[in-house]
Amino acid sequence: MTRKHTKSFDLFSAYNCYLPQWRGMIILALLLLAGSCIGSLITLILSLIFKSGVMNDYTLLISYPIQFIPAMIYAASKSHANEMFDNNGIALDEGRFAPIGGLWLAIMVAVGTIACAIVCEPITLLLPEMPEFMKNLMETIAGGPLWASLLATAVFAPFFEEWLCRGIVLRGMLQKYSPTVAIVISAAFFAIIHLNPWQALPAFILGCLFGLVYYKTGSLKLTMLMHCANNAFSVLLSRLPGADDCDTMYQFFDDKVLYGIIYAACAALLFLLVYRFIKTDFRNI
Prior knowledge:
Largest sheet: none
Shape: globular
Number of helices: 11
Oligomer: single chain
Number of strands: 0
């Protein structure tokens, strides 16, 4: 991933010349934390102003985009400063879809992401039970109107997190490290920023899958789609009748044999997807 490209969305091209290494990654994480504090403060002020509790349903919609603003401003300023040394940079979004094609790739990775989410699920069973305060926090995030939950988790989260974890961090790490090491580092960063061990472990594995797809295709749109598919699947699954008391799909299925068949099929599908991506030399159409 050393070639220079100028073709990208205008929104993304502002970051073409910023390729952070460890120091930059730490700064971005700290700015993300600062943005989270700012977002929480703004939502607290709004909740005190309206006093009705209605803000509780839309807290994430307001605070989530705000927490990324400091990091985005910093990355854009660093990219602009670097333009005098590298006029083109490396595009955040390239789209190397041949020989499969963009549409088929989109279908493959979306289905593969859901399969990966199902395969990862038993990992959470190895952890101790989630504390009550964490359960309440997760319910608050997933609660509220369905449209608000989907907008926050299936639109905002994929856009901002993929911009940061794949478009900025992974793209930067690929300039210094091997693809495997760079993907693992970006996936670990992706897991850590969730600040929740029960999300972090599956997020790390999903982050490795997202990273593989980004490295091979250069497409941020594909990883955003994958992230969207995973989060939308999780939200919709939690809203199914009878899912209130279920922390995992395993608990949701009364027929464990059927669950075992679905799990085996997802594991096979995920293996085939990863194998195909590793073996395919993707190029621009």
